[in-house]
Amino acid sequence: MRIAIASGKGGTGKTTVAIHLYQYLSKLLDDQIQLIDCDVEEPNDLLFIPDAVNIYENTVFTMVPEIDTAQCTFCKKCSDWCEFNAITLVKNLEFAEINKDLCHSCGACSLACEFGAIREYKNPIGTISGYKTTFGTGITEGRLRIGSSMQTSLIRELKKQTASNTVLQILDAPPGTSCPVVETVSGAAYVILVTEPTPFGLYDLKLTVDLLNNLKIPFGVIVNKAGLGNNAVYAYLAANNIELIGEIPFSKEYAESYSKGALLNNVPEELENIYLKTAERLLEVTGIKK
Amino acid sequence: MKTIITSTGNNLQSVFDPRFGRAGWFCVYDRESNSTNFIENSFKNVNGGAGTKTSEMAAELGANQVISGDFGPKARTMLEKFKIQMVILEDEGLSVQDIIDRINKN
User: Fold this and answer.
1) Are A183 and A113 contained in the same domain?
2) A4, A107, B64, B98 - which has most CB atoms within 10 Å?
3) Which residues of B touch A67 (CB under 8 A)?
4) Torsion of CA A288, A171, A165, A136, to 10 degrees
């Protein structure tokens, strides 16, 4: 079973919640849990678990086209078909080039070309790495190559490579509501939306709620940095009958530990109780047996 | 020698557009014939690849030089490949005509 952690707004605390739930659910579920960092543009989960040990690293490739100028007639059909403006053709200079960072590997140009001028080669888009941790079954991380725009493909491959693991999986999603987030949450049994009680947090929360309602995936909300901002988020949750799974109070010391990567050391008792309660509630709503 | 000046509108009184890939219009100025031609930038609102595609447009128009406020990394790479000179002009609210006058004064 997969549970995704998403947010809409960035910086609300997805990573914080993900690593704590990984830790506390490990206790409740006798280590039968895996953490998957799907925030491939900035995978941060491992920063907070410095004793994690790397087990493997696989490079992920997509097929990217290139143009053989000897065959190309510069008819521009491929470039017209390209939704991503990745193809540049200048007939008078006999110049034909495909920008591999703009290309989404959709294959349309290969189909469009009637002159056999396009062939495909393997282009690395990122890596998938496995780490062993002292609790749980470990962390799998996707890491996008800098400059690549293939987040969604990398996340899809990350989910594929971890699909055979039967333990509960926590997926730490990227921020936002676009394709990489849709890819991360699709197939999840439940989504935890982490928000903050600010107008920005609420605005983006609403967008994400719309997305999940569209995808018909059940979800609940954790309010992080509680005590900041205003009460509008609680009014919204009540008015829309959305489950509040937990509330994490704002604390400056906590933010300082975060910045040092030391979140999981010396968790204050108050916070530990909140996370344990949140983890228990999560097991209840998802029907997972301890 | 053909120079492209990025412009916010379609005539000589239009204000200079400091953006290249996202410029509203291109003024193609031909020094030999002292003529201008305004072309709308159809890539100004694309999601990605505006710099690449406008550079392609500049090459197809046979430009030797482009005057704009700045050039993004993709545009720079492309324009270098096409051996089109990039000229960066500070945005002082000049009109396209002002810039052409400056070119001719030099």
Assistant:
1) no
2) A4
3) none
4) -70
What's the pLDDT at B98?
A: 95
Report how far Cα A147 is from the mean position of its chain's Cα atoms: 17
pLDDT tier, A257 (very low <50, low <70, confident <90, very high otherwise): confident
Question: Which range among A101-105, A153-157, A193-197 shows the weakest confidence by mean pLDDT?
Answer: A101-105
The interface predicted TM-score (ipTM) is: 0.88
Residue type for A67, please? I
Gap from A158 CA to chain B (nearest CA, Å): 25
Task: With beta carbons less than 8 A apart as the criterion, state whether A167 and A34 touch.
Answer: yes
Whether residues A36 and A155 share a domain: the answer is: yes
- Look at strands A33-37 and A168-172 and give their pairing: parallel
CATH fold label, B2-97: Nucleotidyltransferase; domain 5 (3.30.420)
Q: From the candidates B45, B46, B52, which should be mutated to test the interface with A, based on the most A CB atoms within 10 A?
A: B52
**CA nearest B47 in A: which residue?**
A84
Q: What are phi and psi of A134, to 5 degrees?
A: -70, -15
Candidate from B47, B52, B82 with C-beta closest to A93: B82
- Pull the structure tokens for residue A90: 């200048």
